Automatic annotation (TrEMBL), chains A, B:
It holds the Pfam family TetR_N. Signal peptide: none annotated. It comes from Nonomuraea soli. One of its GO terms (molecular function) is DNA-binding transcription factor activity. Residues 35-54 bind DNA. PANTHER family: HTH-TYPE TRANSCRIPTIONAL REGULATOR BETI (PTHR30055:SF234), HTH-TYPE TRANSCRIPTIONAL REGULATOR RUTR (PTHR30055). The keyword DNA-binding applies. Residues 12-72 form the HTH tetR-type domain. This is AcrR family transcriptional regulator.
Amino acid sequence: MSIQARKERERAERERRIITTARELAEAEGWDAVTTRRLAAEIEYSQPVLYSHFKGLDAIMAVVAVEGFAELAQLLHEARVGATTPEQAVERVGRAYSDFADAHPALYEAMFIRAVDLPFATPQAPEALQAGYGELREAMSPLAGDDNVDVLTETFWGGLHGMVTLQRSRRLNPSTYGACIDLLIKRFIG
Amino acid sequence: MSIQARKERERAERERRIITTARELAEAEGWDAVTTRRLAAEIEYSQPVLYSHFKGLDAIMAVVAVEGFAELAQLLHEARVGATTPEQAVERVGRAYSDFADAHPALYEAMFIRAVDLPFATPQAPEALQAGYGELREAMSPLAGDDNVDVLTETFWGGLHGMVTLQRSRRLNPSTYGACIDLLIKRFIG
DNA sequence: ACTGAAATTCTAGCACCGCTAGCGCATCTG
DNA sequence: CAGATGCGCTAGCGGTGCTAGAATTTCAGT
């Protein structure tokens, strides 16, 4: 059975290489540069090999997205537990979200702009995604008051997402972006 | 000069037909269905004709987007002037924006998600776009208080845009979407 | 150790994309 | 009526995601 174990291990390694190569390529040159031919050349296999691991290019992007969900969830968690007041928690979480989007634009794109075939607001959603949402929710919860916590969480998330996407597509005045994030947070703390 | 006038008129009509066909096709089947071959077939000319009118497919989408800016600006204006209080103005404008996005998803996509080659937060931006922003700004202005009006306007816009885009890509719980819009507006009125 | 079977990887190709060079025809000018 | 001009066409380039089927490698049974 050792020989089969080796093959499985090598196959898993190749799959990892596909994913990390896709992510690196996307972060370096954007998702448009991540083509099946390019990816295949990069891992030094032929195109059809990709399809023995994934259903298609979208599925590869989805796996990268899930990786991103995990990293974001971790960052949001650290931001939240590092706060001393509920208000500070919201502020830190909001800033962590915005910073993450700025630091990893391609990753953010896979997570929240492209890759529609992932389930989102359901129990079938990836665990890491639910964890990230949970961090946001946990931060908002003490400040909900009469408002429904999920509505509040989704709205705050929507606000952050909107700022992030308008900023990244150069639709906002760049010089006021920071002030906008500040104001958004203020409106959800008050 | 009458013969040349006729030719110019016919050429302008053909250009209009390209634009309206692109928009109709996009609204009916999404922008992915708007290909040069499809568009050419629809207007009953060959592909290269498109390039005698526009630099490329992106330019066609940009023209559709500008059309959308004008329509949105008109809707926002009507919403704003139909209000009796500053708070109601913000509420009506916010709802008009969200309703517009829901009613014309492909148009909204061209305006605020794709088509990056249009100038946005500068004086070179299309007039209709500036007009739309102006309506938003006018609505927010009375409620700015100590906050910078442009920062407030961009932030409110960002919030709306975020809700709209997360909703359209099915990343939100559909049953709470309305409540989220309500809450967002409330947070910017209070 | 050798041969047939099974699994794996490759080459080659499909149908499509945006875009363009350059030919042929229709129209206008002298 | 001949030549020049401009317009729309056919055909093609290099690219895309994806796949059928050949070829190679690896395994299993005698």
